[in-house]
Design a protein that fits this description.
This protein is an alpha/beta fold. The protein is built from 15 helices and 19 strands. Helix content is about 25%, strand content about 20%. Strand 18 and strand 19 form a beta hairpin. Keywords: Hydrolase, Protease, Serine protease, Signal.
Length: about 475
Amino acid sequence: MILRTRPWLGLILSLLLIGCSPLPTHTQNAPDRESERPQKSALVVAKTQALAKAQVLAAGGIITHNLPLLNAVGALLSPQSIQKLSENRKIDNIIIDAALSDEEAPEYAITKHAADWLRSERGAPVQNDWLETLIARDEQGLTGQGVGLAIVDTGISKNATWGEPSPRIIARYNSVTDIEGGDVSDSTGHGTHVSSLIVGAGSNWAGIAPLASLVIVKAFDAQERAQFLDVIRAVQWVTVNKERFGIRVLNLSISASTELPYNLDPLNRALTAAWDAGLVVVVSAGNLGPHLSSVTAPGNNPWLITVGAASFDNSASEIRVAPFSGRGPTHSGHIKPNIVAPGTRLAAFLPPTVSRPSHEPTEFTKDGLWVTSGASQASAVVAGLVTLLLEARPELSNNDVKCLLANTARPLARESKTPISPMSQGRGLIDISAALRATDTDCEERFEGLSPGTVIEGAYTLDPHK
């Protein structure tokens, strides 16, 4: 049986559907019946944001999001408004949030093989000690101090007992309500777990970059779901305010459908713009492995640093790619993930006030830390390590960081010494100590100088006959 397992899948966005073609005509009585149907949330794109807004209002739509980053607006549209806009030559395209239910989105169910593996790992040692060795804290003496790290997620707990030193949360933004400094409380614990992996969980976990300057951006609801418009608005806010808050790194431990090509997907377009603005954007490969071409969006974006989940096998003293971790190639032919990082059985803070799904086998350490697995955690690990890299070498650009991580990653091999496919591990396991020493900032994944609108085609396609 294929399981629908939210605890390991991180966060889920609604499926995105493009609706540019004219809708079918209706009978005379159809408009009355259509007007009773609920309005749909949609992204409307034009040459400028102002033009998109004017055309939506003229068509009777209601503006919900101003998104100049994409020359677009978010809007509530009736069927009649959608038809008018689809016939309007001033509108480039309309992307409708289909708002699929869990039951209607089987593409997010992990495989039985991956689910069985996760169950078999229950009760095994946590892997924070392995992560600690990769941080090389004693060798480097880095804390992330002075580097801004934005985390777009479910928020952060008000009741987090962080201990000393406490994390420096320098800004909060709720993209659902569009309020800066407002409530970003976490009702599911996902964002808190990701954040405390990076900045620590009191005396029980020192964190990766305990003095990083956190910018907490809440974009998800109490069920770990979000409208894609809210996530795009979150990315836009971070991009606009990066200089104001010293933000160098943006982490999104989220997973969305790859229904649209990466260059048409609006969230991917927003993240490409964020990368073009100079941010180091770190995203997860998703949790739909081990099948090929299972990397989810925005992990399928060639501009971004996509992270898969690695696991340390204590019995064999071997590092493997976790079965659930998303694999390449992407539909556009790119090798993804770029790198892998610890992403299984990591322990961090879970507030006692949050609510996890009733079917989830929640597990804790004897010290009360929540033990969970996912590419979400692996993405956060890399974001934290990048913060250390930028503390030591603030002159590095995002392209420099991407290439340093690629050039210094350690390729993984099986116990038989045969290499693991790059479609599973990318360049290999992140090695932050090597990246701190390295000087070669050139690599195939460096797209500096290209327009963010450039469609980058990869060289690898999945053979449907194999």
